[in-house]
Design a protein that fits this description.
Elements lengths: L15 H24 L10 H11 L3 H13 L4 H31 L6 H14 L3 H14 L4 H13 L3 H14 L4 H13 L4 H14 L1 H12 L2
Helix pairs in contact: 1-4, 1-5, 2-3, 3-4, 4-5, 5-6, 6-7, 7-8, 7-9, 8-9, 9-10, 9-11, 10-11
């Protein structure tokens, strides 16, 4: 079964317009599938405990590495245990599907004439490398995406997360700040930066500012930062 097959379009002969339109829609569908697959996590049941909700939030925000670090807490919490076990299975499924997704992206990179979709394709290659814990390859692809689209703030966030787990904290913070210079009010960036300030570069006052910013727009993000500061 091909998970990421691009739909076939029957086109009028000698129609450059329709041919290009089919490429666009094929690429758009691939983007939607890959992003859904990359961030896919089992739905959170109403009864799921806070320990698992934190795991899911980090994963869906694009930080699987730190989500897995919190997984033992979810496995130990009765109301989170089943969801945590399902999450582990979902992660393994993603890893098995990674080669297929990567092949689809490479095919698009080789054939597309639509330059504006190339940065997102390159970014998604980085996300797959991230999933497979290939830090250097992830860095390479994120930087390639930024060469094509310097204003892609999420690529700077991803670079920051990679350098953080490599222990290169100065570089990590530099990339977080670069992302914030592009989109200063992006909740996802503020969340990741706030978490970074609680676990790697411990600056409680700065982390608290991020939590306060997120309190109204993303209260769960805010709660998580504050609880990390308290050591809960």
């Amino acid at each position: 079964m091909k998970v990421f097959a691009i739909p076939h379009f029957e086109l009028p002969k000698n129609s450059v317009f329709w041919w290009r339109l089919s490429i666009f829609f094929g690429a758009a569908i691939l983007f939607a599938l890959v992003v859904h697959w990359i961030r896919q996590a089992p739905p959170t049941a109403a009864s799921t405990g806070w320990a698992y909700q934190q795991v899911e939030m980090l994963d869906q925000a694009g930080d699987l590495y730190h989500a897995l670090e919190l997984l033992p807490n979810a496995l130990a919490e009765a109301s989170s245990k089943q969801a945590a076990e399902d999450f582990l299975k979902a992660v393994e499924t993603r890893k098995k599907q990674a080669p297929s997704a990567s092949t689809q992206i490479v095919s698009q990179l080789q054939t597309t004439e639509l330059k504006f979709i190339i940065p997102r394709l390159l970014f998604n290659k980085g996300v797959i490398a991230d999933l497979m814990q290939d830090n250097l390859d992830a860095i390479r692809w994120y930087k390639a995406a930024l060469e094509k689209k310097p204003g892609m703030s999420i690529a700077y966030v991803r670079l920051a997360l990679v350098h953080e787990r490599m222990g290169e904290l100065e570089k990590a913070e530099g990339y977080f700040l670069k992302a914030l210079s592009i989109q200063s009010r992006a909740p996802l960036t503020r969340f990741h930066y706030g978490m970074f300030l609680t676990r790697s570069v411990v600056r409680p006052q700065d982390a608290l500012k991020e939590a306060q910013f997120l309190e109204k727009v993303r209260p769960a993000y805010s709660r998580m930062i504050i609880e990390q500061l308290k050591g809960e």
